Amino acid sequence: xxxxxxxxFWTAVRFLNRDAEQNDRKDLLLTKQEAMQLYEKExxxxxxxxxxxxxxxxxxxxxxxxxxxxxxxxxxxxxxxxQLKAIAKTALTNPVHYITDDLANSLVETKPPSSVEILDKNxxxxxxVVFSKKFDIFNTFNIIQEExxxxxxxxxxxSTGNIGSLDEHGRDTNGELKGMDVPMxxxxxxxxPDCCMYCDTKEYFIKNMLHQNYYTLKFGCHIDPKxxxxxxxQKFGNQITRSNSNRDMEYVQTVLEHDNxxxxxxxxxxxxxxxxxxxxxxxxxxMTHQPEIVTIQKASKYVAVESKGFAxxxxxxxxxxxxxxEDFVTRVQYSSKVDTDLSDISRxxxxxxxxxxxxWHTILQGPGRKQRHMKWFQPVFxxxxxxxxxxxxx
Length: 394
What we know:
The protein is 31% helix and 24% strand. The chain is α+β, with helices and mostly antiparallel strands.
């Protein structure tokens, strides 16, 4: 009998329950009813990955990583045993926010405020964000408040490149990015407000989280089977089919080479971490000072019966959709055109498209101008007029 996605999810939850029980964390145990409630919690809007695939991948990553940590007694940089992962029960009730590409890009392209004092902790303890299938920076983003900082768990897609029906950027005919799902985690410590918060974040990542992320990548990555080919194998590593101890669930595990994992962790620290940090802090600021950015759309009672066609069926208790930036539009400015007939165009050279970075500004208001309010000056996308070269087109 073929193992379904729901079967894999529930089997992985049972193993996570066992790990939690052995660590005397009975508060993390999920009953089957609670697990199915989590699995069926969301109906994703069109253009976004299904909630069921997201929560199954996340649970399978935890299951695969915990298995290796437990069997091999893996330790972190300080020789402490790596903590086994578990599903927090807050995931049962916390809403999932679906963010638009326009808002996501604008948050990434904004310089965040330097101090943590402006953050409203009341919008936490946890924010779960899902990005569209076409967004090429992140897939999912979980922001979790802890006593001494903010923990961020995210996934992004590492493109497989031009393979089969995919274009040179690793996108299919629908413009969706295909490749390997990369899970990563970092921590934003609440330190000295006069210090650079991003510097503290990067230092903490290097000193305390390299081993943890290394093992998660080594045992918990997933590659879309539709793009699994020999060239992908040569680029990333191998895949093996495994089963759990009761042999009632088979799953495919990606086995990455050591050099590839090192490159992934290092490239995250040098290239992706800064974008993830900017997105995280800017999102918290935006939800603090512009709470209206979150809108709730009443879901349709009719959902598709199949992935293809127009057949629908009526479903009761369909959850509402929580949008981030439903009506948000990117600010766009067009570069002035250049008259190529002019003999001297050095003073108005054609420009490539680029972002003009946004920023936050403190506004003093109220009696005696003692009330402080943060205002977001949005980034602007400058639409260039430079014609692409033949090499860039190809």
